[in-house]
Amino acid sequence: MPRTPWLVGGAQRQGRREVQADAFAVAGDQATGRVAVAVTDGIGDTKAAASAADLAAEEAVGAALAATPESGCIRARDQLVASGITADASIVIALFDPTHSRARFAWAGLCRAYVLTTEGQLQRVTYDHSLGERIRRHTGRRGPLPLYDRKVTRTVARHEFVTTSLPAHSTAAVLLCTDGVSQAVDDRTIAAALLRDDPNAAAELLAGTAGTNGPDNATAVVLRRAH
């Protein structure tokens, strides 16, 4: 039977938050070699936020594996709304299929995806759905906007999801992460971590650097193409 050409590792740190409200889930199909990964970030430092993140990740990954990342996001939305959980979450999903020429992604909120190409170049796949990012896009301003960068404009339960894809053949490694990682770790550190052969070690490096004593939960999931 076919096996997925991707090795997957994940790591989390709670940081100084009262609750670990990040979550991730991984699903694979040995018959097809497909693998799907979902990373979620509950909005708020509450048990409800943690429940929203857990539910969204678990529901999203199975639907994404069976169909598309967007289907995973929609499944997460439907189940979150039906659950009665009052909190919401950010989400990013990636799907890899050996028979498909593109690596596919869907997201909403502040979770991010990065790709390391086979030429060693780091590319950011997603853009943040925040008021700060909206201001930068419309005004040309650069740099952080602390008052606005954490004001989320798209979530699992609200508004539409965004999708994109990249050539799978030129993708050597992928990082999916919450903003606890992306706000604390620079691109050089991300690229260096994604060069590691062991995705667990790479994820531990990124989550550990960001979140051991950081202000936010930090979650990193790394996919590395098997040699």
Report on the structure:
The two termini are 18 Å apart. The chain is built from 6 helices and 10 strands, in the order βββααββββαββαααβ. The longest helix is centred in the N-terminal third of the chain and has 20 residues. It has 227 residues and is of the alpha+beta class. 30% of the residues lie in helices and 31% in strands. The chain is globular.
Explain the layout of strands and helices.
Blueprint: E1 6-13, E2 22-29, E3 34-42, H1 47-66, H2 69-83, E4 89-96, E5 102-108, E6 112-117, E7 122-124, H3 131-139, E8 162-167, E9 171-177, H4 179-182, H5 187-194, H6 199-211, E10 218-225
Antiparallel strand pairs: 1-10, 2-3, 3-4, 4-5, 5-8, 6-7, 6-9, 9-10
Instruction: Report the count of strand segments.
Output: 10
How many individual helices? Answer: 6
What is the structural class? alpha+beta
Q: If strands are numbered along the chain, what order do they take across the biggest sheet? A: 1-10-9-6-7
What's the overall geometry? Answer: globular
Order of helical and strand elements: EEEHHEEEEHEEHHHE
Helix content: 25-40%
Quick rundown:
This protein is of the alpha+beta class and 227 residues long.
Key words describing this protein structure:
5-stranded antiparallel beta sheet, globular
